[in-house]
Amino acid sequence: MEKVKITFLGTSNAIPTKKRNHTAIVINYKNETILVDCGEGTQRQFKIAGISPFKITRLLITHWHGDHILGLPGLFQTLVMSGYEKTLKIYGPKRTKFFLSTIEKLMSEHKINTSAEEIISGKFIDTPEFSISAESMEHGTPTLAYSLTIKDKYRLDKAKIKSLGLPNSALLRDLKKGKDIKFNNKKIKASNITYLEKGKKITIILDTAFNKKAIEFAKESDLLICEAMFTSEDEVTAKEYKHLTASQAAEIAKKSKSKSLLLTHLSQRYEKEPGKIEKEAKEIFPQTKTVKDFDTILV
Questions:
Q1: d(CA 171, CA 183)
Q2: Where are the alpha helices (DSSP H) in the chain?
Q3: Cβ neighbours, 10 Å, residue 208
């Protein structure tokens, strides 16, 4: 199965640091380049990472706080000046259309073609290759978590096909669809020629207070990308601002039976000791890593 490539363009919280830019995550899968959030300076991060923003096909907005969207005017200007002619498909929570129209008024000389869809929850993209779902979170403003699911596929056993002498024809397509066929007056069962290649699930949970919906939404993720703005020492502050601690992120990963956890959206207070976040989470969920800007992960 083709790998999903994930690049972290920004991993800070509301205040960027010398090492961490505002939140932005790029997901590459086949012909799709999906940008999740677009903090200030994201267009420059694209340059440094060596990724062309010209290839963006979809934009997922988790919520409309400044550190997640203030890079949009600059990104749109970059796309216009680069001759971007596609329609950028944008998805986000309630009021997404209103906020986009406000940006377009500001960028009257640098407009690109966009289509906007406001999401509450559930599956909103479904292709033969993958689907994307959303779930509402708790952050004091309409906020979404997202889950990308690469679908299971039936693959043909090449050795068996060769031994049977099957030609490259519509017969193979039927087998791949699970249909039995006839070849040389013999019935060939699809179940004997194919095998199931399991898909993958990648869940992204950014700004939110701890909530049970997050656990259910992340259920059995191959990879959970989750905010961890604070350690438990600052749990009161985390609760006040509706954010997660490292231990709460780890608890979501553990209870959802996710396979691995990547922590992002760190507070500037841990700039000199980011290991505190990772250490705390690992005590609950050992398969944890804290990411930094420009880290790339293959799933």
A1: 8
A2: 42-49, 66-69, 72-81, 96-106, 158-164, 170-176, 190-193, 212-217, 235-240, 246-255, 275-282
A3: 26
Question: Domain spans of the chain?
Answer: 5-152+198-298, 154-195
Indicate which residues carry an active-site annotation.
Answer: 67
**What DSSP element (H or E) covers 290?**
strand 288-290
Name the token pair of 123.
Answer: 């599956």
For the stretch 135-182, pLDDT in tens is: 999 999 999 999 999 999 888 888 888 888 888 888 888 887 778 888
Residue 220 has pLDDT above 90, yes or no: yes
The domain made up of 5-152+198-298 has a fold known as: Metallo-beta-lactamase; Chain A (3.60.15)
> Does pLDDT of 110 surpass 80?
no
In angstroms, rounded to a whole number, what is the distance separating the alpha carbons of residues 235 and 219? 24
Task: Determine the 3-state secondary structure of 86 from DSSP.
Answer: coil
**Measured between alpha carbons, how far is residue 120 from residues 144, 145, 245 in Å?**
8, 10, 25
Q: CA torsion 63→68→69→74, rounded to 10°?
A: -160
Buried b (16+ CB within 10 A) or exposed e, 57-79: ebbbbbbbbebbbbbbbbbbbbb
CB burial of 153-172 (b: ≥16 within 10 Å; e: otherwise) equals eeebeeeebeeeebeeeebe
CA 138 to CA 205: how far, in whole Å?
11
* Location of structure tokens 């970059």: 78
Q: Are 254 and 238 in contact (CB under 8 A)?
A: no
